[in-house]
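Hi P.,

Sorry for the delay on this. The queue was packed all week, but I finally got your sequence through. Input first:
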Amino acid sequence: MNRRTFRLIIILATLSVFGIVVVQVFWFRQAFNVREVEFDRTAREALAKVAHSILRYNQHTVSSNVSIKKASSNYYVVMVNDVIDEELLKTLLRNELEKRDIRIDFQYIIYDCANNEAVFGNYFVFGKEDIHPTANQIFPKIAGDNYYFGIRFVNKDLALVGEMRFWIFSSAVLLIVISFFAYTSFVVLRQRRLSEIQQDFINNMTHEFKTPLSTISISSEVLKNPKITQSPERLLSYATIIGQEANRLKGQVERVLQMASLENEEIKLKKETIDLHQLITQAAEPFQLSLTEKGGTLQLHLDATRNQISGDKLHITNVLYNLLDNAIKYNHKIPELTITTQNEKDQIGITVKDNGIGISQEHVKRIFDRFYRVPTGNVHDVKGFGLGLNYVRLIVKAHAGTIKVTSEPDQGSSFTIWLPVTSEKLA
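Then the structure:
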């Protein structure tokens, strides 16, 4: 399956899941609205029944129409043109609501129009006999000069949602399906990315091994010629070439094996006190010579005042070699390299800056992954396995340090390593 088809499938699957979620939310909202309308109808019936009972208790004529106002989504006001007994109201509210299976905790208040004030305000909890006084100011005052009682259903929306068990169950199942889809997509994308990295590594390894093997093969064919013994210089030359290419292959194999060892945390550091400025100068010397021949430059600005660290000299040197080698390899201009050092608190920072091709932000966060190389299509003009920067990161981490990179395409790259300095000073 090619990349375009794979992306199309992922996009279509994502859109399908999104569509299902939208439909589920729509129908859930519709079901909630229906349940809310049903609750409103039932609550009004119960409150009208309470008002009628109060009027009968006071031996007044019962009107068929009782004024019930809905002040908010969960607050009702019932007009009763007569005095309201608090104990009677509480009993009637509880009984009428229970008959209609409305078991939502509520607050109620009684308004006395004679004194123009609320005379009672309590909180009733279903399943408990006791009631709790409630603050009167939470009930807005209704204009008019009539007796009325108000009732607020506490957490009504939450209670209605709790009664929609089927929709909650279906939503939970949908959530599980979406989570499974997201996890599966993540695993598939990760496996595909690893497959691409593996394929790229195999391609790079083929190119890396092909050249020395071809050279060895050609040289061995020449050495098979009996006449070669008559030219000792040619014999020595071809034998030297075979030896060099064999060592090159050996180095490449050892590099892969070494990375496997590092990944398994089998690395063992031989730490010693290192003058980092001296080490940088020594590591930069061969690169300065080769750059001079190409017209390039390598400048050192070793400004750190505390430059002594505890570390493995061989591995730290290899880290510098890797960074400098990359700065030269990934450069289509005349190379201009700079190494600077600085101190910050108890650390020393080593920055290797170049004017190379740079790296886009899309790939910056992945360049330290093992076998990863910035995609260049089918062009393999820069050799390598994609192991160098992964090695750099592992070594820096083993020395309790950190590495950061700043880069922009065609603007060069800047790698900064921070390592802890020792408390001792150089003599």
